[in-house]
């Protein structure tokens, strides 16, 4: 008989549907022909079945240029298979196109098939695929020709990405050759990249093998063997000659499958894989689906110096230290037995000091061991070096009955001892410019459980020191006594000597689920800074409390003495157009920054990891009073003065604020070849540390008129003006300030000097050439003037202010044969005593009255 079905102008879940199917049956043979059009995508089928196996022939063609139109069917599929709804939603394509052909002959398992599949721009919630093509040809016998070719680009899924994937099989089902090439943007972590070498723009894996399939009897699965397996994995697109990350030749493996095609066991024949700096040899490596695992392997000699030099090239690692290892693991239903050991074979290590000289560590023992038997896990550590000291420890975990792996309830017992006779050897690991010294002895005992460990022990240090010459930090004779009891830590003593003073820290901390801390700091004439241009000695005390993520800092300090030279610049820095580019083996110190930056950038596999949940910020509340004391000197930029006053450091809203008034005392300000006295100097802080309000008045002494410079306004936008009392014109003020007299009768030379002074006033606060010259020859006054009358002579005046009241000067005319020395003593504001010797000898008592 025969039957036909035709659908026209229909819809399925809102998707346009059309179909035309015919069925014909004659004797034992049935023939089906049909076409299905769904949302613009067409599937055709033409075939016949029944009768003998050779009469079964089927052909199918799929043309699906618009998979996006099938999106409404996803909800229908979810309702039809609710248990698989999540998987359907992740795999259902939201866009892209498919083209496929399929031709078969015979019946399974004696089935011949061949076909092609092409996909383009497939996207779904679970994967993305740019392009892919598959073609295959499979015979109906195990010795029939077998061909398979797969090419794919831009595959993303499950958090991973493959830029390219190629798989080729050629031969028969019984015996065939396999070749695999995979390219991925996945790169090793930053620390591993330093160890392995540059990773280029991703990783590449190439594998080749011979495959052999042996079917089981009566459909009982079969055995698949890989022989002559070769693997090479490394970076792609790097410099020629770079070594692969791993390399293996001549490996063999056997895979056992059950009747349903599931993997039952894997056995690797003895082999060897080359890794960076070492190789892994295994005698046996077996796995079974019931969870059993047997591993017996050894690590060949490891050249530690070469590995460390790639990880930390800036430390200058050298030496001939070699390590070896052994791995024995047996896991089955009865439990887990493991013995893993990494130990020193011989040799030593050295690091480079500041002068580039190799400093050997004197290693005599290095051993790490793990042993697990009958639920008892034992860890052991041992490191002994003549210069670096020793670290020895042993810990034991005992699992509850029936547990294979350590659980939070596993009981914990252990001990760790560390003795460092000279911390200076570890100085290579501290930031550049800093140096540490002293001896440290640590003892820690562990008990409790793995989930809630308890720690008891002590840490004692003697002769501790911390030094940074560039920053002026030099802490010596440090003493440490730290006691640990359970989740409590108590600092019985932690002190340093700085200069002639000392700093002591005491207190304790709670280390449980709600950590807290309370410290007390006491300083007595402690030298915080000891640079030649920055010296600060302070005394005082402070308390620091941390509880519920709130940090409270209270204290009061007094600066016993200090000196700050603002005229000296900081350490030299590189120009803005200079860039430092690290080599491929950059220092591991940069690895932390790379890891932090990765949280905000796409991952190395091309997929952006979700950002970690932000931790609640610590709220800082600070109230620290600082008294500047009587002997804080400030020098530089023409200023020489003492600073006095009180300021309070606080932290409103989490930002540093400074409140208080700083005043000057006995201050001098050098400008225009004169040393002005700072009669009034105040810096009023009212919040922002870098922008106080300024009120400074500097007067030239020993004049009949008060004249000087007034600076007021904010520090970031100050106003500088000339000042006089009584008020004078700016030209008169400048004349009195620079020349020390009224502008009446000034000659052309004095006028030119005033003009230069005016330009200097406008140019800023930098010292001019005249100031530098006078300072170099030790003078404070230099002027030119011309005498009045018909015959004019140019008079040169030189002078030096010996003190506030004493002045010595010399005058001589250009045309005169002798000059005049003057010694002036300022008795009071209006009385001056002057003694002259030279062309004129006289003693004068001068009284000045102005109106």
Give a structural overview:
The protein has 851 residues and is mainly β. The chain is 9% helix and 59% strand. The protein contains 8 helices and 49 strands. It has a 40-stranded mixed sheet that branches. Strands 44-45-46-47-48-49 form a 6-stranded antiparallel sheet. A 3-stranded antiparallel sheet has the order 19-22-23, with helices on one face. A hairpin with a 6-residue loop joins strand 8 (127-138) and strand 9. It starts with a strand and ends with a strand.
What value does the average pLDDT take? 82
Instruction: Give the uncertain stretches in residue-range form.
Output: 568-573, 582-609, 762-766
Q: How much strand?
A: over 45%
Computed Rg: 44 Å
**Pairing-aware structural class of the strands and helices?**
mainly beta
Overall 3D shape: elongated
Characterize the main sheet: 40 strands, mixed
> End-to-end distance, in Å?
139 Å
> What portion of residues is helical?
under 10%
| Count of DSSP-assigned helices | 8
The total of beta strands comes to 49
Short description:
The chain is mainly beta and 851 residues long.
Task: State the main characteristics.
851 residues, mainly beta, 40-stranded mixed β-sheet, 6-stranded antiparallel β-sheet
Secondary structure topology:
Elements: E1 2-12, E2 15-26, E3 29-38, E4 41-50, E5 57-64, H1 73-80, H2 85-91, E6 95-107, E7 110-123, E8 127-138, E9 145-157, E10 160-172, E11 175-184, H3 190-196, E12 203-215, E13 222-235, E14 246-257, E15 263-268, E16 271-275, E17 278-288, E18 293-303, H4 304-311, E19 318-319, E20 322-332, E21 335-346, E22 349-352, E23 358-360, E24 363-373, E25 376-385, E26 389-398, E27 411-420, E28 435-448, E29 453-468, E30 473-486, E31 488-498, E32 501-510, E33 516-530, E34 534-547, E35 550-565, H5 589-598, E36 619-627, E37 632-636, E38 639-650, E39 657-671, E40 674-687, E41 693-699, E42 706-714, E43 717-725, H6 730-738, H7 748-763, H8 769-777, E44 781-786, E45 794-801, E46 806-813, E47 820-826, E48 831-838, E49 842-847
Helix pairs in contact: 1-2, 3-4, 6-7
